[in-house]
């Protein structure tokens, strides 16, 4: 049974339709727009003024005439049908199945915009997540309930890294596996196929919910995709008690769609043309992560964004860094050296790492080893800059030891196989073996008792392989 349909619209501009204000219309309400041939398009109210109502159409607006188009307001926000049957399914950006199977059999629907969470109900994240990747586990630890983005660039292996995290991530304390929610926004078909094939081969597809808004889909659809994905994640986490890992890629495409809508609406642009509300809009997405009292489940977010021109000060990574709890930065120079994963040691950080590592969580030497590796690698960067000016032959012996440390760090600690799953103990032991090339006096961030306890054992287990210095024969 159809409700009241209003005939006639005021204007059409791209995906934006403007109609006269109707009584009881609310922000975020879903509207059904019917053209003269009877074809129906779905839209969402994105602005309401005293006189007009702005509707965003999910799809093409071609064929809509000002006189013969009718609009019906459905008096409901956009909703996603949910059940445990979500797992193993593939949906488009609006939550419609595209895997050849029917709609979910469930009467339960949830508002894709989410529901407000009382800040007092949030539980501080403390549980260590083992990804099996040394560069993350050792120095930029992921904590359950954290939002930790990956800052990448075009051509860098962020998709491979993300797929590896999804395959290997587990909560160490409880040895529990994750349910995955994957949202692709504006990604190419081959990228979507890569993730589907990877999940199938590794046997995790039955635990993955996929929302795909491909590059040929209407860009306006990308605005809804992460909200549908997070709605599914909230249902699985807070109502079914599961630990959910949400991957959102590529947030840059999402922000471009947001800029497109803002420009169409004639809004005053902010930095680089993005709308002034970009920060609050991103916060709506990123803040839908964490743990809440009364639920055994959790949501951990890994948003991926490709930095335009590798510029970390660009508005998208800049604002993302303010909202999230750290970032994993991929480095083009490391990638060109053949290092995988090319995680940059210095600009990467995890702000919640200190609360999820140490005795009883990972190992009591974790914090000291991580801090010393960071300090030593920072000094390597300075010495390399000096060597580029005066030449390596003119460096002091101590500086040459640091250069050797840098080579070992990149080739043994950062570098690992795409299907290599290292335990946190293996990661820390590799760190100890690499630090052994430095004089004991340089290990000033590690407690002496830890050096005596862990370094001999790590060296006895597997002495570090000889790595030639630059300019020397192997």
Number of spatially distinct domains: 3
CATH topology of the largest domain: Rossmann fold
Count of helical stretches: 12
Helix content: 25-40%
Shape: elongated
Short characterization:
The protein has 474 residues and is an alpha/beta fold.
Describe the protein in words:
A hairpin with a 5-residue loop joins strand 4 (29-34) and strand 5 (40-48). This protein has three domains: 5-77, Thrombin, subunit H; 80-355, Rossmann fold; 366-461, Bovine Mitochondrial F1-ATPase, ATP Synthase Beta Chain, Chain D, domain3, CATH 1.10.1140. The protein contains twelve helices and 23 strands. Helix content is 32%, strand content 22%. The strands form five sheets. An eight-stranded mixed β-sheet has the order 9-18-17-19-21-14-22-23, sandwiched between helices. The protein has a seven-stranded antiparallel β-sheet with strand order 1-7-4-5-6-3-2, with no helix packed on it. Strands 13-12-15-16 form a four-stranded antiparallel β-sheet, with no helix packed on it. The longest helix has 25 residues, at 366-390. With 474 residues, the protein is an alpha/beta fold.
Give descriptors for this structure.
474 residues; Thrombin, subunit H; Rossmann fold; seven-stranded antiparallel beta sheet; 12 helices; elongated
